[in-house]
Amino acid sequence: MDSKKMMTIFNKKMNVYLNTVDFPRLDQSCNSADNTYAKEILKDIHDMFVKVYGTDYIDYEHEFVNVPAIIQGRETGHTGLGLVSLDLESSGEHCGTYFFTPLGVINHGSQKNTKKESNYINETYVPYNYWYTMEIEDDIHLDFDDVPDKINEFINYCRPDQPGMKME
User: Fold this and answer.
1) Residue 29 phi, psi dihedral angles, 5° rounding
2) Residue 151 pLDDT > 70, yes or no?
3) Which of 44, 111, 106, 115 is CA-nearest to residue 71?
4) Are the CB atoms for 93 and 142 separated by under 8 Å?
5) Domain spans in the chain, listed from the N-terminal domain onward
6) CA within 20 to 30 Å of 117's CA: 24, 82, 97, 158, which one?
7) Mean pLDDT along residues 82-99
């Protein structure tokens, strides 16, 4: 199956799945001691990606991918989940983010965002760091050596059977 078809299938599955997510609860779970709900949502999305793509190791046969990610505001420390769009023809260059917020899914930078949505992203996250659950071949944009413990917990929850990939 070609890369564009896989991305289309994954995006369709995501849209169906996101209709089942309690976004205020997700946000609360990401930012509390009990982050079980958030971890389960992230793992579901990770597993959905793996089912569509057949792997959680992404190489450069794909042009673009949307991968599950944990996102954290650098100044606020606020943590959330989302999808990060990567241009693999540019060594994994980050080219977009879909934030899962109490307001729903917000596509960062979209001209369709309401003022309230744009303000929420700018006040809560921007600037932000992100870490995805996939392994991207030769990724030069993320450094998994200094991942906060909480983020490691999320990543390891999604990849429990891959001790060589555990980010500790």
Assistant:
1) -65, -40
2) yes
3) 106
4) no
5) 3-158
6) 158
7) 83
DSSP classification of residue 146: G
Q: Is the pLDDT of residue 90 over 90?
A: no
Q: How far is CA 111 from CA 66, 114, 118, in A?
A: 20, 8, 9
Q: Judge contact between 66 and 10, C-beta under 8 A.
A: yes
CA 95 from chain centre, in angstroms, equals 13
Q: What pLDDT was estimated at residue 63?
A: 79
Which two structure tokens, joined as six digits, stand for 65? 């991918």
Task: Determine the residue type at 85.
Answer: S
| pLDDT surpassing 70 at residue 168 | no
Does position 166 have pLDDT exceeding 90, yes or no?
Answer: no
Give yes or no for a contact between 100 and 117, defined as CB atoms under 8 angstroms apart.
no
Label the pairing between strands 64-73 and 79-87. antiparallel
SS3 102: coil
Q: Name which of 160, 155, 158, 159 is nearest 142 in CA terms.
A: 155
pLDDT of residue 163: 42
The overall longest dimension of the chain from CA atoms, in Å, is 44
Beta-carbon contacts of residue 108 (< 8 Å; ≥ 6 apart): 96, 97, 98, 99, 121
